[in-house]
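Objective 1.3, modelling of assemblies. Example input:
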Amino acid sequence: MATVSPTPLLKDELDIVIPTIRNLDFLEMWRPFFQPYHLIIVQDGDPSKAIKVPEGFDYELYNRNDINRILGPKASCISFKDSACRCFGYMISKKKYIYTIDDDCFVAKDPSGKDINALEQHIKNLLCPSTPFFFNTLYDPYRDGADFVRGYPFSLREGVPTAVSHGLWLNIPDYDAPTQLVKPLERNKRYVDAIMTIPKGTLFPMCGMNLAFNRELIGPAMYFGLMGDGQPIGRYDDMWAGWCTKVICDHLGLGVKTGLPYIWHSKASNPFVNLKKEYKGIYWQEELIPFFQSVTLTKDCTTVQKCYIEISKQVKAKLGKVDDYFNKLADAMVTWIEAWDELNPSAAKSAELPNGATK
Amino acid sequence: MRTPSCLLPLTLDSAVLNLSNITDLSPLPDHILIELFLRTLRAGKLTERVLKLFIATGKDEVFSLIQELNIQVTVNPVLPTRTLNSDLTSFMNAWRPIFSRFHLIIVKDLDLKEEIKIPEGFNLDVYEKPDIDRLVGTSTSIIFSGYACRYFGYLVSRKKYIISVDDDCLPAKDNKGFLVDAVSQHITNLTTPATPFFFNTLYDPFTEGADFVRGYPFSLRSGVTCVLSCGLWHNLADYDAPTQALKPEERNSRYVDAVLTVPARTLMPISGINIAFNRDVVGPALLPCLRLAAEGKFRWETMEDIWSGMCVKVICDHLRLGVKTGLPYVWRNDRGDAIASLRKEWEGVKMMEEVVPFFQSLRLPQEATTAEDCVVEVANAVKEKLGSKDPVFARTAKAMLDWVKLWKSVGGCSSSPGA
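Predicted structure (tokens):
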């Protein structure tokens, strides 16, 4: 097909959102790849602590005081003492694309020993279509050296716009606390050289450690929920956002990809601390999965915001009885959308799904 | 929890990897023999030959383990021959290290006139036109010619697992340069659970070095039985003729080191070039029923496997069984001229536009609890919904019902309900 053209940098169209509570030393390793981009740093925890950003990066930083000042009473929807606060960064950004990464994630190497430019791969993933309606056995058909296999209907070969690019991690895998406790020494050494679209109707556990998305297509769905301080649950922020996002993408005909790029995850969090945070989530997810699998969105849910509000109503109706937390969460979901629309007024009107692929 | 490696476990692991070179296990002390047996079993390497080795030691503990664990090694590679290649010598010699320990079924294409040549040293049965006629008779609409001849092999096999590889494929090499034991990988795929109800982002959670990720519901972690394993192809990938014609130089060299479960209700083109399945559970669902009017002798001139694959997937989804895709790879030789094939009418390609929406909306009734029942339901739906669109579908529906009858009479006992 076409010759390989270089991946556009998109440096004026993409923000990198980083939640942090400690320091940003990890950025030194990412400098060759991140320096052209604008960073949005969301400082969690004690706002009086000064977070040092390495020289030479263009950034804006928000701590809890800033979040409270900007959102006023609506700040209640943004988590405190949990990396879920990063979604404030998505809301405040004015760019088309977001890449978010954790501060214990470093540059990984591919099997040939070369440094992986994760951001470049995410951009490639977002700029090229997804294929959620029929699985291609050779994975991403648009990739160099691959294509659609025999039997793949031609009418489905144009694909749909990609809303989310979910990257993976070498070294410390993203396990839950029980698995971590049973296998504390397990390291992910397998480099799986594939990107694939997660089929329509299939849910997945979305990890926020190495994630990129098209903010214009799906931004309002990327609410990371109520976690951390004062909340009965933690480490389910990205999961929640992922389930809502996937249901909405399936409804609106948008694609979600997973696979490359890999980053190197360096820090294993304490499994006992994790167990305390996840404990309720482990039980609740047994209810949550059937809930998301059966969410129905009607034809008049034509924008992400409308879909999201509809989901919040169903959360209240069906999950409120599992725990009162879900009533609060449903309210927070509405607050989030209100805050999003306030901070992104023109986006509220143009969020109707465009026809054809985005570039 | 992995303890630091010491010499004994390292030795045992090494022995498991090198089983094909071991001819006598009797010098081993009992406790080491038992441990080796268990590791071999866990690694999915307990083949007939290896089992015989253990039995030959005469040790009681081994016998009681075999009894207790109800071990039955039952693999059956089925090899259809190609009309352009009656000389199977180089193909079988290339696969010898991998195939020689299994029982092979070779089915000769009805249209092939020459004698087939098979090298020595294999445990096999060969079926040719007279055998097929004798067993199947003439009252059926099923024609075991072309790529469809392999289904005769599926019919007559009495083993639990079947592996089927096109005879223009050779063993591939993995990303470290080692020869891929495709049979072993298929068996591993079929003997470990599949996870179709929720996607695991680290792919196969049962493989060494991986697991379920955070957020994967615990109630779904035991998985379901995997009954179909779809492998991939290096060199000549399974493209249709237009794609191959447009990219004549393209060869697949990417080794994607993953096996993954195809999610429930997700359909995909299942290629017959390199597959394996659990005959006991889904045998009847792999069916030689869709024959294109201009069906040819190159893969890109057929759709029989794609049709069969759609049926199998819908049936597996209904019976809550798993289908995996990914490893193992085979190396597929260059063959045929895609541009020459382009001159034929694009029946198959056009057909998929009707076929895919049909299967995506197909729902089978609760009462269909075996593969045979499901095939009958699918056949009836094909006749009802697609029959009027193209005569090939009406023929296919009839062939599917004939296949079920054939399966019941020639195929031995009926399939077990979804395990």
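Confidence is low (pLDDT under 50) at residues 354-359 of chain A.
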